[in-house]
Structure formats: structure tokens, C-alpha cells
Sequence to fold (308 residues):
Amino acid sequence: MKKKVSVIGAGNVGASLAQMLVYSGFCDVVLFDIMEGVPQGKALDLSEACPLWDSSSAIEGTNDFRRTQGSDVIVVTAGFPRKPGMSRDDLLFANAGVVSDVVKRSIEFSSGAIIIVVTNPMDAMAQVGLKVSGLPPSKVLGMGGILDSARFRTFIAWELGVSPEDVEALVMGGHGDLMVPMPRFTTVKGISITELMAEDRINALVQRTRQGGAEIVALLKQGSAYYAPAAATFQMVKAIVLDEKRMLPCAAFLKGPYGVEGYYSGVPVILGKDGVEKIVELKLNKQESEDFRNSADTVKSLVEKLNY
Fold:
């Protein structure tokens, strides 16, 4: 029997993720949304594409949380998107209510599920998910580091004229304007980018990575990025469902590593069937440590505003 993945929110990110999941064929999918007809229509469309993809995955669209019962993974994409001029943090209170509600209702029918939070501001929303679900921290995590690292990889590949497949990048910290791209741990076929480009160019790419989401919001004018966020989430779901033991940068609840106690922040983790199976603690230099703590403190301030 295939594993069951429920995607909460049938907007651009949720629907794109659902497409990737059913195309892959390794799980069955439930697509939930409060808008009547929207998840059903998108699920029917995807079902009719499965024969063309040689996929045996089943997908159901629903407005009823009971249909998500027995999910192995629950992905929360529901919430309000950014508009031009807004930061991720501007969505704090509106999306906290949405995430709290959908996590409570989802976990009622899938008490053993692993929850992946995509909704922004993601680190703080993961904290909301942890609090209301009652699950252990290893089973509630946030998507952000993979997306931010993919953006960094893309910009590096363009700068150097190489394939993005050959670039391995690491971005840590909160999924916000103070995220921490790590040039020292970023390589092209094992060669650090600090050996391949000048410091000023690295700094420019770091800044573009930090503004990567805002750049897309400004171009679209309505809505925010969804293809790359969906692809990043897909990588996380796949690692969990197939127990791949992937080392990936994800938002994890920290209880001491990197000097952070009791908050979510992006760090390298081992991701498998039990969720976050290990937090990988790197030896950061003084500047990296300072940047990471500043980023983590921003997440802390958001959580304190929510009183979580």
C-alpha cells in the first residue's frame, strides 16, 4: 500500500506539489481546501493526467478533513501569500490563525503524521504547528532551507557558467531577510566558491538569495513564488516517505544546537521516515555564528509576539 500524503491548501504551492507527488508515483495524495470545487477539480485534472505519466498514484480533492485520515505526511501550504512591499513577517498573525486551525483539524485524524509547514513566516508557523499538534519536535518541521539553498545554487551556477547540478549550497537560519547563506560550505564539485569567485560577487549573490522571494513577488505583482517552493517541499516529502536519510537544510526545533534553545531555525538535518532523525551541528566561525544567532533571534521575536 502506498503512503498517504495530505496537502492542506490547493493554491499554487499546494497544487504544484500535488502534481509533483502524483507524477512521481510513490504515494497517494489528498488535496484539501476550504473552497468548494477547487480541490476536487484540480484532483480530477491530475487524475486524468496520471495515465499519461504512467503513474498509479491516486489523488482525491476534498473540503472535509476526515478524508485526510491516516496520513503519513501532512503538508501545510494554506495561508495568505505575500504581496509587493510585504515581508514574510507581515503575514504573522493572519497566517498563525490559519496554521493553528488546519494543524489541529488535520492531526485529529492523523495523530502519527509528520507535519511539514510551508506557510510564511515559516519558522514561526512551524512553532505554531508544534504547539497545537502536541507532536514531538522531530515530527514537525519547516520548509525553507532547501528553497533558499536552491536559489543560492541557481545564482552561483549563472555566475560561474556551470550546471546547477554541480553546485551544492547551504543556507541556514530563519527563512527571512536575515537568512544565512554559507559560502564556506558551498561548493562546485567539491571546490568552495570562495576559491572560484571574488568576495564582492559572493556578497552580491548572498544578498540576492536573501531577497529571492521578494524579487519574484515584485515581478509577479500578485502572489508569490510557487514552483520552487513546491519542488523543495517535494524533496522533503520524498525523503520521509522513502526513508532516504537525506541530509537537507530544514527548519528544525533546536534545543541547544548552535546556541539556540526552544525555537525553529534552518539547519542541516538527516531526514527519514521518522522525520528529523538527526540535527547536524557544524563548526561555525565567529561571523557565521553571529549571523546565525541574529537570524534565530528574529524568529524568536516573532514567536514571542504570538505568545507561543
Notes: The first strand starts at residue 3 and ends at 8. The first helix runs from residue 12 to 24. DSSP finds nine helices and 14 strands in the chain.
